[in-house]
Amino acid sequence: MSELLEVRNLSKQFSSHRGLFHARRTMYAVNDVSFALPAGRVVGVVGESGCGKSTLARLILRLIEPSDGTVSFDGLALLKQRAGDMRRLRARMQMVFQDPYSAIDPRYTIARAVMEPFQIQGKRFTTAEATATVEELLAMVGLSEQMADSYPHQLSGGQKQRVGIARALALKPALLVLDEPTASLDVSVQAQIIGLLEQLRDELNLTYLFISHDLALVKYFCDEVLVMYMGRIVEAMPSTDVNPRHPYSKTLLDSTFEPDPKQRRNIEALSDEVPSPFDLGSGCAFAARCPSVSARCRNETPILSTPGRSHAVACHHPN
Question: Which one of 93, 132, 199, 223 is at 20 to 30 Å from 317 when CA atoms are compared?
Answer without folding.
Answer: 223
